[in-house]
Amino acid sequence: MSNIKKGLYIFIANIILFVLIEIILTFFFVLHKSNYYGPLARLFLFEKKVSEETVQYKMSFNKKTGMYNEGEYNFNNIKHSVNKFGFIGKEVDIENKSGCRLIALGGSTTAGVETQKPYPKILENLLNQNQFNCEVLNFGFSGKALNSLEKILVNQASKFNPNVITIMSNRNSTMYDSYITSAVATDIIKSKFDLFLYELKNFLFFEIMTYRFLSLSYNRALSLLLDEENKIISPFNPRNFHSIKYFQNGYKDQIRRINSYCKERGFKLVVIKQAFFINLDVQKNINSLSKEEIIDELINYNKEKEYPNVKNLFWMYTNAILNKNLDELAAEDDSITLVDPTKSLYAKNKLDFFQKDGLHLNLQGNQVIANKIFESLISKQLIKK
Predict the structure, then answer these.
(1) What does the alpha-carbon distance between residue 319 and residue 316 come to, in Å, rounded to a whole number?
(2) Engineered SS bond to 148: which of 31, 116, 120, 144, CB 3.0-4.6 Å?
(3) Cα separation, 373 vs 382, whole angstroms
């Protein structure tokens, strides 16, 4: 047998082996209820199921941009339009013709699909009622944390040349960015080659199940090797770990990097504390502690006997820690404007300002945040008539 035939047989055998591995791993990810099953599942097995489960809040994402796909969406009989650029709202010009444009970055609490008037829309109305000819663009995307929001800011939002950037990200940053395996936003697209690498990595991770499995396994190994004192077990999945260093400084480093980018582009940055209504008596006690004291409590949160709901306890600790990080940032850098709506939102019963989950806001809650942002914009003279 010639070397060419041997090489061809080996090549064909490897292709068959690869396809078999892809089939096995496709079933593996389906059984583990992953949101992404790969092309084989889409082609042969679960096309309808896949298309449904990769949609959050019934709004589908563009994998390339990280933003929504254009279209009309209906969430519990509340209709929202996503424009051709991929964010909620009417069509706009990329050029900032009014000379006053704000972009609100955040997760689902900024998108506000639970209400007809999320706080970016209320803020825009409030500004225009007070003779500020301003646009407020709603760059809120369900499930997006600072890692993703930084990429959206640099690669998409900055094209609209805003005067002010507002960011509200707390719960999602805890849920996604604080994992030890989470990469702090490094996929900043500054060249065509950067874009090629970013798209290649995304393609491999979401479409090639072998690459996805090896990538996740590598990250899992890194988590296990990290010193015990630098990690805490996740209450959502005992196989995952959250980084203590993220709560100490990592979150602040993300905001600092975003602020540096905003300064380079002439954008003013406003950061917003996020409220999470769980148990106000417990939360009041937690907030009375220093950040360092809360982190010490967080390290041992799953050993707490007096408050057995460890998931809620975890949320209360991490919410307080990240909000205190924002206090520190605003104190160290006066170019960062801090908005704190938490005291107002915690003043009454949960359903006065929140949905049943205590996180997403109703119309009144969105009004509170819009009012607080408006007050800061005026007092700090961040916008002009």
Answers:
(1) 5
(2) 144
(3) 11
Amino acid at 254: Q
* Sign for the pseudo-dihedral over CA of 190, 196, 197, 200: positive
Interatomic CA distance for residues 87 and 174, integer angstroms: 23
Distance between CA 363 and CA 239 in Å, rounded? Answer: 38
How many Cα atoms sit within 13 Å of 49 on the Cβ side? 13
pTM: 0.80
C-alpha to C-alpha distance for 188 and 264, rounded to whole angstroms: 15
pLDDT per residue as tens, the chain (385 positions) = 677 888 888 888 889 898 898 888 888 877 766 656 677 766 665 544 444 334 445 677 877 778 898 988 887 778 889 999 999 999 999 998 888 999 999 999 999 988 889 999 999 999 999 999 999 999 999 889 998 899 899 989 999 999 999 999 999 999 888 887 654 334 445 556 766 776 777 778 778 888 888 877 776 676 566 655 677 888 887 777 888 999 999 999 999 999 999 999 999 999 999 999 999 999 999 999 999 999 999 988 877 666 668 889 999 999 999 999 999 999 999 999 999 999 999 987 888 999 999 999 999 999 999 999 999 999 999 998 7
The amino acid at residue 236 is F
The DSSP 8-state label assigned to residue 248 in this structure reads I
> Which architecture, in CATH terms, is 59-180+226-379?
3-Layer(aba) Sandwich (3.40)
CB atoms within 10 A of CB 192: 8
Residue type at position 264 = E
Distance CA 113, CA 233 (A): 32
Alpha helices in 180-307 (DSSP H): 192-207, 209-225, 244-245, 251-265, 280-287, 291-299
Could you give the CA distance from residue 189 to residue 154 in angstroms, rounded to a whole number? 7
The token pair at 233 is: 């077990």
Residue 133 main-chain phi, psi, to 5 deg: -85, 80
Cα 54 to the center of its chain, rounded Å:
16
Partners of 243 in beta bridges: 231
Length of the chain: 385
Contact 385, 131 (CB under 8 A): yes
Instruction: Measure the CA–CA gap between 312 and 182, rounded to whole angstroms.
Output: 22
